[in-house]
Amino acid sequence: MKIKALYFIGILLIVYACNQNDDIKTIIEGNYVGIFERNANTSNVELNFHSGTYSGKSQIEKFPAICDGTYSISENIITFKSECIWTAEFDWSLILAEKWTYTHTNDTLIMINSNGDQYRIIKQ
Predict the structure, then answer these.
(1) Residue 17: which domain range?
(2) Tally of domains within the chain
(3) Amino acid 3: pLDDT
Protein backbone atom coordinates (compact mmCIF):
# COMPACT_ATOMS: atom_id res chain seq x y z
CA MET A 1 0.00 0.00 0.00
CA LYS A 2 2.84 2.41 0.86
CA ILE A 3 4.51 1.74 -2.50
CA LYS A 4 1.28 2.56 -4.35
CA ALA A 5 0.95 5.80 -2.37
CA LEU A 6 4.56 6.78 -3.13
CA TYR A 7 4.06 5.90 -6.79
CA PHE A 8 0.90 8.05 -6.91
CA ILE A 9 2.69 10.99 -5.23
CA GLY A 10 5.56 10.66 -7.71
CA ILE A 11 3.16 10.82 -10.65
CA LEU A 12 1.44 13.86 -9.16
CA LEU A 13 4.79 15.63 -8.81
CA ILE A 14 5.70 14.88 -12.43
CA VAL A 15 2.33 16.14 -13.68
CA TYR A 16 2.67 19.26 -11.53
CA ALA A 17 6.18 19.98 -12.89
CA CYS A 18 5.04 19.52 -16.49
CA ASN A 19 2.07 21.81 -15.94
CA GLN A 20 4.36 24.48 -14.47
CA ASN A 21 6.58 24.30 -17.56
CA ASP A 22 3.50 24.66 -19.78
CA ASP A 23 2.35 27.64 -17.68
CA ILE A 24 5.76 29.31 -18.09
CA LYS A 25 5.69 28.75 -21.86
CA THR A 26 2.19 30.27 -21.96
CA ILE A 27 3.35 33.33 -20.01
CA ILE A 28 6.35 33.86 -22.28
CA GLU A 29 4.46 33.29 -25.54
CA GLY A 30 3.98 36.37 -27.68
CA ASN A 31 5.77 39.01 -29.71
CA TYR A 32 8.55 41.04 -28.11
CA VAL A 33 10.65 44.04 -29.08
CA GLY A 34 13.66 45.45 -27.30
CA ILE A 35 17.43 45.55 -27.11
CA PHE A 36 20.27 43.05 -27.40
CA GLU A 37 23.47 44.11 -25.66
CA ARG A 38 27.05 42.81 -25.79
CA ASN A 39 29.90 44.78 -24.23
CA ALA A 40 27.93 48.07 -24.32
CA ASN A 41 27.10 47.60 -28.03
CA THR A 42 23.36 47.35 -28.69
CA SER A 43 20.93 46.46 -31.44
CA ASN A 44 17.14 46.61 -31.65
CA VAL A 45 15.59 43.14 -31.85
CA GLU A 46 12.25 41.42 -32.31
CA LEU A 47 11.52 37.94 -30.94
CA ASN A 48 8.37 35.86 -31.29
CA PHE A 49 7.61 32.84 -29.10
CA HIS A 50 4.84 30.42 -30.06
CA SER A 51 4.22 26.80 -28.99
CA GLY A 52 7.86 25.95 -28.32
CA THR A 53 9.17 27.71 -31.43
CA TYR A 54 10.80 31.08 -31.86
CA SER A 55 11.63 33.46 -34.68
CA GLY A 56 13.04 36.93 -34.82
CA LYS A 57 15.28 39.50 -36.38
CA SER A 58 17.82 42.13 -35.48
CA GLN A 59 18.26 45.68 -36.70
CA ILE A 60 21.97 44.96 -37.31
CA GLU A 61 22.61 41.88 -39.45
CA LYS A 62 23.96 39.03 -37.30
CA PHE A 63 24.25 41.23 -34.21
CA PRO A 64 22.74 39.17 -32.77
CA ALA A 65 22.12 36.37 -35.25
CA ILE A 66 18.46 35.47 -34.81
CA CYS A 67 16.60 33.05 -37.04
CA ASP A 68 14.01 30.33 -36.42
CA GLY A 69 14.20 27.44 -34.04
CA THR A 70 12.80 25.75 -30.99
CA TYR A 71 13.08 26.51 -27.31
CA SER A 72 12.46 24.70 -24.06
CA ILE A 73 12.15 26.00 -20.53
CA SER A 74 13.33 24.45 -17.29
CA GLU A 75 12.99 26.52 -14.14
CA ASN A 76 14.75 29.83 -14.96
CA ILE A 77 16.62 28.58 -18.06
CA ILE A 78 15.52 28.90 -21.68
CA THR A 79 17.40 26.63 -24.07
CA PHE A 80 17.35 27.66 -27.73
CA LYS A 81 18.10 25.46 -30.72
CA SER A 82 18.59 27.37 -33.95
CA GLU A 83 17.32 25.56 -37.02
CA CYS A 84 19.07 27.80 -39.54
CA ILE A 85 22.20 27.24 -41.55
CA TRP A 86 24.84 29.83 -40.71
CA THR A 87 27.85 30.95 -42.71
CA ALA A 88 31.32 31.22 -41.18
CA GLU A 89 32.10 34.94 -41.59
CA PHE A 90 30.87 36.09 -38.18
CA ASP A 91 31.16 35.30 -34.47
CA TRP A 92 28.89 32.30 -33.90
CA SER A 93 28.54 33.16 -30.21
CA LEU A 94 26.10 35.82 -31.48
CA ILE A 95 23.63 33.13 -32.61
CA LEU A 96 20.56 32.86 -30.39
CA ALA A 97 21.21 29.31 -29.21
CA GLU A 98 22.14 27.32 -26.12
CA LYS A 99 21.14 28.20 -22.52
CA TRP A 100 19.99 31.58 -21.25
CA THR A 101 18.98 32.48 -17.70
CA TYR A 102 15.80 34.51 -17.76
CA THR A 103 13.48 36.59 -15.63
CA HIS A 104 9.96 37.48 -16.66
CA THR A 105 8.27 40.33 -14.80
CA ASN A 106 4.99 41.77 -16.03
CA ASP A 107 5.61 42.01 -19.79
CA THR A 108 9.41 42.31 -19.64
CA LEU A 109 11.64 39.35 -20.47
CA ILE A 110 15.35 39.60 -19.64
CA MET A 111 17.65 36.83 -20.87
CA ILE A 112 21.37 36.58 -20.05
CA ASN A 113 23.81 33.95 -21.30
CA SER A 114 27.07 32.74 -19.78
CA ASN A 115 29.25 35.33 -21.56
CA GLY A 116 27.09 38.24 -20.39
CA ASP A 117 25.08 38.89 -23.56
CA GLN A 118 21.67 40.22 -22.68
CA TYR A 119 18.24 40.59 -24.25
CA ARG A 120 15.83 43.08 -22.66
CA ILE A 121 12.56 42.72 -24.49
CA ILE A 122 8.97 43.78 -23.85
CA LYS A 123 5.84 41.92 -24.90
CA GLN A 124 3.74 43.84 -27.41
Answers:
(1) 2-123
(2) 1
(3) 66
